[in-house]
Design a protein that fits this description.
Layout: H1 14-26, H2 30-39, H3 44-51, E1 54-59, H4 62-77, E2 87-92, H5 100-108, E3 116-121, H6 129-144, E4 150-153, H7 156-161, H8 166-182
Parallel strand pairs: 1-2, 2-3, 3-4
Helix pairs in contact: 1-3, 2-3, 4-5
Length: about 180
């Protein structure tokens, strides 16, 4: 009678997986994180936390607009992903088509754990009523209802002239300074 010697599967400590996933994240290897999350269901949460940690949204070209709309679809379909976002960086240079997906993403992140926020708008948008009426209240609510520690809002002078209340920036600065003091 022959006996076969089959190797026993070894258990890799989960801490080691965490180190591997963090190394992929630090090396900006998003594709590998995506593939790893698909290959091993046990690592899905670890990978998603890194993939969605920092989100950069550009509303400028049709490709960027399509990507933002897809991101909104993903976030609205899987709302647990919103809690992973720590940094949100937006730039907008057109309102054609209307940036409802971008507004929805920003609104859905209110009361979440976003710590860094940057927003830059084309100076030509400061004259656009749609921008003034839809984005400014959205940004004011967002900054007032998140745990932001660092913020950068580009074209500050243009936005202020277009209806962004100067008190909003003072409030945002006080809020951010308070969050840094408390933390």
């Amino acid at each position: 009678m022959f006996t076969t010697c089959q190797p026993q599967p070894t258990q890799i400590p989960f801490d080691l997986y965490e180190v591997i996933v963090e190394e992929l994240f630090q090396s900006n290897n998003d594709d590998s994180l995506k593939f790893l999350s698909l290959a091993c269901h046990n690592l899905l949460g670890l990978c998603q936390r890194r993939i969605f940690r920092n989100i950069t949204i550009s509303w400028s070209t049709s490709k960027c607009i399509a990507q933002t709309s897809r991101l909104w679809f993903i976030l609205s379909s899987s709302p647990h992903l919103l809690s992973y976002i720590r940094g949100l960086h937006c730039s907008i240079s057109t309102l054609n088509p209307h940036p409802i997906a971008l507004i929805n993403i920003i609104q859905s992140l209110q009361h979440k754990n976003v710590e860094e926020f940057s927003f830059d708008a084309s100076s030509s948008l400061s004259q656009d009523n749609c921008f003034v009426n839809s984005f400014i209240p959205t940004l004011q609510n967002f900054v007032g209802n998140t745990k932001i520690r660092a913020a950068n809002i580009g074209n500050l002078a243009e936005l202020t002239r277009s209806g962004f209340d100067k008190r909003f920036f003072l409030l945002a600065d006080d809020y951010i300074a308070h969050r840094q003091w408390v933390s």
